[in-house]
Every structure is written in C-alpha cells, then in structure tokens.
Specification:
The chain has 21 helices and 21 strands. By secondary structure, it is of the alpha+beta class. Strand 17 and strand 18 (294-300) form a beta hairpin. The radius of gyration is 23 Å and the shape is globular. The structure holds adenosine-5'-diphosphate and 6-deoxy-beta-L-fructofuranose. Keywords: ATP-binding, Disulfide bond, Kinase, Nucleotide-binding, Rhamnose metabolism, Transferase. This is Carbohydrate kinase, FGGY.
Amino acid sequence: ATEHRFAAVDLGASSGRVIVGEVAPGRLALHEAHRFPNQPTRVLGTLHWDILSLYQGVLNGLKTAAAQTGNGLTSIGIDTWAVDYGLLAADGTLLANPVHYRDTRTTGAAEKVAAALPPRALYAATGIQRLPFNTIYQLIAAQGTPTLTAAHRLLLIPDLISYWLTGELGTELTNASTTQLIDPRTRDWAAPVAQALGIDLSLFPPLRRPGDPAGTLRQDVLTEMGTTHPIPVTAVGSHDTASAVVGVPATTPDFAYIATGTWSLAGLELDAPVLTEESRAANFTNELGVDGTVRYLRNIMGLWMLQECVRTWNTETARTASTSSTGTTGSTASTASSTGSADLTALLRAAAQATPLRSVVDAGDPAFIAPHHMPDRIADACRRTGQPVPRTPAETTRCVLDSLALAHRRAIEDATRLSGRTVSAVHIVGGGVHNTLLCQLTADACGLPVIAGPAEAAALGNVLVQARTAGAITGGLPELRALLHSTQPLRQYEPTGDHSAWDRAAARFGDAQVTRAGT
Ligand code: ADP
Ligand code: LRH
C-alpha cells in the first residue's frame, strides 16, 4: 500500500514543533522536522505570544518537512494551545499581538460575567470549567478597547496560523469549545450565552470540524518553502489536547488519560457531556473532541510549576555567578549554594531520593497560573497549610511531583464518580512521559497501572486525523488507537509502595478544589 506523509504543526506553550508522520495501513512513524522555543514577551506590562516568531518557526519547519519528504506531503494539520486569539481588521491585518492566557488582564472578569449570567446557567449551557483565562473572560476584559472595537474577525491561534498559510478563514470546533461559547449538546454556538455577555459571534468565521478541508497553501508560502507542489491543509483537532487524546493508545474503552506537558489535563473520554451541578462544583470541563466525543477533564497546573521553579533557580544561579565573578559578596551567594544545579535530570534524580509526601500543594490552584517566584509561592502554600516548607530544589521538585500525582488521582476519581464510569488503566501522554518519577508516582497515587507514551501524542493525533481524511487509513478512534498501540514505544508502570500514604495525603489535602470551584 502507498505510504503517505503528513506534517503536523503542534504549538505548545513550552515549544513549537513540526513533525512528519509516515502512515500506511499498519504503519505509523514520526520524524521531528523542527522544534523551536515558545518565548512569550511582556510589552507595556501585558504578556504576549510572539506570534510572528512562532509562525516563522512553522514556516521553517514546513520547509524542512517538504525537503525531507521530497515535496511529498499529502497534507498539513495544525494544533495549538487553546483559548487565545488574534484580532483581524477587515483587510485581514492582525491588529495586535495575541495576549497570553497567563496575563492578568482577566482579573475581575469572572465577576462581570457572573453579573450578566450566573455561573450555574453558564455551566449548564457550555459545560466548561471555570478558568480565569477562558476566551469569554478575555473578551469581557477587552470589551471597549480600541483593538476589539476595531476588530472585524477573531481567529483562535490554530485558525490564525491556518489563515496565514492558506488565506482561508474558519473556526475549528474542538478549540472553539474552549471559548466557553459552544453548547456541547448541539456542538454549535451557544448564542444565548454570547448575547447575555454582549459578545458578537459574527467575529468568529464559520465552524469547521476535524476532517474538513481548510484550504491550500498560498503561493507565497510555497515559495517560502521552496516548493511549487500545492499542499492542502486539513482541519484536525486543532486544540492540542483534542489531538493528544486522539493520540492515546488505549485498547479498551475503560481508560483514563492524563495529557501532561505544560498542563496536566486529566479525565475521561465520553460520548455526551456531564452538565450537572456536582460536575460544576468539582470544576470539570466538557471540551469537544474528535468524532463526536467529549473530553471530560480537569485542568491541573502540570509541569509548568516545575519549569517555572527551574527558571527561577537558573536565574538565581546565573546572578550569583556574575556577582561572585565581580568579587562582590552578598546574600545571593548563600541562595545559590542552597539551590545548587537546576539541571532537570539531576533534579529529578535527587527528587526521587527526597522524602515522599512530606508536603503537598493544590496543583489546581489558580494562584500558580502566573509566571515568576514559583518556589516562593509553593513555599507559601506549604506554610499556609501548616506543612513543612521545602528547603532545597530537590524537596520542592518532590513536592511538585507528589502534588501533581495527587491531583491526577483526584481528577480521575472525581471523573469516574461524576460520570458513572469505571477505569482499569491510566494513560499518560505528552512531555511528562519523559518524567519517569511522575509516571510512577501517578501509578502509586491512583493505585492503577499507568501506560506512558507517546510523548508526542498531539502530533500523532493530528497526523492520524489527516491520514484518515486522506484515506491512508480507515476506522474510528479505536482503530486509530490500535495503530498507535502496535507502533509506538510504551512503558507500563505498576502501582508500588504504601497506598494508604496517598489516602492520608489526599485527606490532608482536603476539598480545596471543590470549595474553590463552588464559590
Ligand atoms: P507543551 O506541549 O505544553 O509545550 P510538552 O508536552 O512538550 O509541553 O511537555 C514539556 C514538559 O515535558 C517539560 O516542561 C518537561 O517538564 C517535560 N520533559 C520534556 N522532556 C523531558 C525529559 N527528558 N525529562 C523530564 N521531563 C521532560
Ligand atoms: C494545553 C492547553 C490546555 C488549555 C491550556 C490553555 O496546551 O491547550 O488544554 O486549557 O492549554
């Protein structure tokens, strides 16, 4: 059978990548064409995505992908992080750099939204977890600003990249559901919600669904890529988490998944949303997935907490090195010697030796969303809850990983209880697959086997939807997942250790998330 090659553009908050997938019946292989950093930039106090640099990374990646495949790409698919958007003028010009979801402009927006539409009604209509950065809160915060007032179109990030590549406008459904403006029962716009909030739905181009055509590369893009061969763009699950869940190599229906990267997205795949008041109180989301599915999950802070700690320690180490090289002595010297090396592998090795469950924090707490001072915020949370404060980077790292494992367990327990489903295994996909300590701790905390892999699940889910659309493979999600299972390297972790220690930690942890969400 003919082998097809597809390019998956996958932009995560930590890095962007263009990955080539080679697909034929029974065969699926990935090659990374290009990976580039995603470095947000603060301008006049507002945190922005550097969208042009990301787009340049996409172009460079596509150029490499085209060269590597002898200009033989069958199609291209695009997925990125959710909720954020760019605003276009009537002539298609991007009016401003997209604002980063970690920016604080949405402070107070939830109260404004609640005044127009009570949280219960909003959840019953959209089923979306309350997160301060959902698109509706961003739009409420931006209401009346010159840019939003001038905007003719609003494009979610994958739709913006797709527009630049093809000149075609569209709003892909899985990602549109994270705006909190989609009704998960009809899988169409929740017009009454938009109306209550004064949001103009005509800003959004028409909806398209995974598998729909999304245009063909513009001539100038082809020139940039050094090819003349016309290449179509296919809509995939353009929300990276939608693609990542397609990329879960499950072989039975009773699985839970955790997509771990910058975030941990932990939950179940359902065929209908759960819109109950209990579900709202537990802060569960019903995002829309590929093939009519619902991603019933909770957002957990994820490896962002660790990344930010490492960034802080590295900055401190660098500052100390420069202070000591100029001969100055000061208080930073002692900080640096106590932080030591912030190299991730060494840190994880040391964290594996640190006392288990010495202190745990609520990894669902929005207090950890913003950048900066992460080790201090973790220490404060431990102090506030009467637990020992981590003293070293290894102890802080262990605290983060124990806390994530505990939050994974709570999310899976809550999801099964609220949906009436049972789970026999937990799949971990995403960059966190490389963190063997986190995978083992999650198996221990859940008391369930963890199957870890693939790390590039979003790119794989992206490729699989393209491959099916092009006719390179056939079948529903179970068949796509069977192909993953038979072709991708996976590692299984069995629960070890004293499970009652996790029960005690869970009890100590209390019902913080539920209490917070219910308010
Ligand atoms: P995103 O898609 O949100 O950009 P990824 O899925 O790429 O994120 O995951 C990035 C995270 O994966 C990093 O923050 C890091 O914690 C983890 N990671 C990646 N590689 C390794 C590794 N070799 N060892 C341990 N952790 C890793
Ligand atoms: C993960 C993710 C997640 C969203 C967040 C904004 O990359 O898309 O699903 O909640 O970014």
